[in-house]
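Hey L., structure's done. Input below.
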Amino acid sequence: MNIKHGGLDHLAICVPSTDEALKIWRDRLGFPVVCSEVVNGGVVRLTPLDLGNTHLQLVEPLTPDHPLQSWLAQHGPGLHHFCLKVDNVAASQTDLVAPGLATATPPPHQGTQGKRALFLAKARTQNVQVEITGA
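Output:
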């Protein structure tokens, strides 16, 4: 069984400061900001920028104990994951069981603009962080 998806939703870059990252991606490269939201109980800021056919999402952890703080300490700012569009995250989560693609983050968490999202287990995707998002 294949996951039914609608293409790439976004590429995500983990950053220590959205304001500093915007100086590059918005100000130098001209990518317009779609929105900027603090989600998941105030622990992360998500700022998607419009690339025309997809988004570049800046992901800033806001609390000192957020898991992305240790990721940043180890890797520095950079590409964190790619995300696929799906119609229904809960249904897709069920569909992922058959091909052995367990999810790393059940249940779905809050994404931008009211979307739900979840991550696949990296052990099942050759250590590539994959997210799915949708209704």
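The chain is about 20% helix and 30% strand. Residues 67-75 form the longest helix (9 residues).

-- N.
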